[in-house]
Amino acid sequence: MKTKKTITKTPKLRYHKATKQHYCVLNGHAIYFGNPQTCDTLAEYHKTIAEWLANGKQPNTAPSSDITINEMIARFWVHAEDYYRDANGKPTKELGCFRFSLRPFCELYGRTKAVEFGPRSLKTVRQKMVEMDWCRNNINRSISRIKHVFKWAVAEEIIPGSVYQALMTVAGLKRGRSEARESEPVKPVPQEYIDAIQPYVSKQVWSIIQLQLLTAARPSEILNIRPCDIDHSGKIWVYCPADHKTAHHGHKRKIYIGPRGQEILQPFMFRPADRYCFSPAEAEAQRRITMRENRKTPLHYGNGPGSNCKDNPVRVKGNVYTVSAYRTAIRRAIEKAFPAPEHLRQRDNETKQQWRKRLSKKEKAELKAWYKQFHWHPHQLRHNAATFLRKEFGLETARIILGHRSAAITEVYAELDQQKAMEAVVRVG
Q1: Residue range 57-86: mean pLDDT, rounded
Q2: 180 DSSP 8-state letter
Q3: DSSP letters spanning 128-166
Q4: Residue 76 CB neighbours (<10 A)
Q5: Of 156, 197, 261, 369, which has the fewest beta carbons less than 10 angstroms from its beta carbon?
Q6: 3-state SS assignment for residue 171
Q7: 15 forms bridges with which residues in the sheet?
Q8: What angle, rounded to 10 degrees, do the helices at 323-337 and 203-215 form?
Q9: pLDDT for 142-188, tens place per residue?
Q10: Residue 338: which of 364, 373, 365 has the closest Cα?
Q11: What residue ranges in 255-313 does DSSP mark as E strands?
Q12: What is the C-alpha to C-alpha distance for residues 56 and 85, in angstroms, rounded to an integer?
């Protein structure tokens, strides 16, 4: 299947003999600059090319009253796919957030002209999100992203500025003043829940968990550790991630690794400096070695190691963990450490589809509640570390280690030591 070629070269100025005009072709459309005998076509050509390059190699269109919401979003998406990328050129999480936020917007008003979309229409989209049971914070962020699309369209002269100015009059939903539910606060994970999954995760994943608890780093920051990013000349190692959440703002991130963290990380440092310390491929190889060592049948019986592997597997273990893969490894370990009641489990020789069909509505709710009781995700470990740092060393120290620019953000992560407050009240009487 042929793919559309990306325009990399600047289109040349051409001459059309029939009309005696200079022209060039931009994005498949011919743009004419007039007769070189009567006007300065060369200056007009350079002006058009400059605007085309500044517009991300897209045609410079004047504000139109005919462009629909779908057409506007399609143009925005060309910009977004190129703009929302990290230092390695990979799409960021924000691209997925835009896709999620724009879905109800397109479903309701996709065929509507962009100039006809006003504050009342935006409130209708917001109410749709409330009916979809989105939490208040998520709704406010999604509405802000919709406004951002209109802001971009105004900057690109696709729609008039009055449309965006009108939408800015719609304020965000306030706590206790809307039908939208509130999001549940992210809390630290009980230590016994963390310890329970150790037998069910690889050495790599368990090391990542421990490093998160010791450094208060984000999951992605630990997953992307390389020997070349660590300064181990001093007593305390300093890890400077090549890419992090606030890198696009020009902020530098330093993660401090103490003796305990160094002990955990040391076995994974013996590799080329630019290789990732934690590799799913290495974890899989170690798992197969362990399975071979623990096999009960003699080695000369059955299949030899690697003999039953596919030549061209659909999925191949990579050299670096993604946040999604890390989260999945923890989820699977939790399901093994805290198995659901027998009547709710998936039976042997039962597909997932058959399993879901077998469970009643009440049983599905019971299963969901069971998993919710024991489930936790990697980012909660950062809250564990923040709470400890806040309790033992104060808010400012926690802010520095967490890499926050403001202490107000740290307060969200670090739960206050309620036990101390209760003890104080008892002593006061």
Answers
A1: 78
A2: S
A3: HHHHTT-BHHHHHHHHHHHHHHHHHHHHTTSS-HHHHHH
A4: 20
A5: 369
A6: coil
A7: 22
A8: 100
A9: 999 999 999 999 998 889 999 999 999 999 999 888 898 988 877 88
A10: 373
A11: 255-257
A12: 15
Instruction: Name the residue among 216, 212, 171, 202 with its Cα closest to residue 401.
Output: 216
Residue 2 has pLDDT above 50, yes or no: no
pLDDT digits (tens, 9 = 90+) for 253-295: 788 888 898 999 999 988 888 888 888 888 887 877 777 777 7
Indicate the length of the chain as a whole number: 429
288 touches 275 (CB < 8 A) = no
For residue 299, what is the DSSP state?
Answer: T
Encoded tokens for 176: 């206790």
Q: Which ranges constitute the DSSP H helices of 304-360?
A: 323-337, 352-358
Taking a C-beta distance cutoff of 8 angstroms, is the pair 377, 219 a contact?
A: no
CA-CA distances (angstroms) from residue 288 to 284, 321, 330, 333, 362? 6, 18, 19, 18, 40
Alpha carbon dihedral 157, 158, 159, 161, in 10-degree steps, equals -20
What is the spatial order of strands in the sheet that 21-26 belongs to? 14-16, 21-26, 29-34
CATH level 3 topology of 69-167: DNA polymerase; domain 1 (1.10.150)
Percentage of the chain lying above the pLDDT 90 cut: 24
For 185-295+317-429, CATH number out of 1.10.443.10, 1.25.40.10, 1.10.8.50, 3.90.550.10 equals: 1.10.443.10
pTM of the model: 0.68
Alpha helices in 168-311 (DSSP H): 191-196, 203-215, 219-223, 259-265, 280-293
346-356 tens-digit pLDDT: 888 888 888 88
The two tokens of residue 324 are 């999604």
- For residue 363, the 8-state DSSP code is H
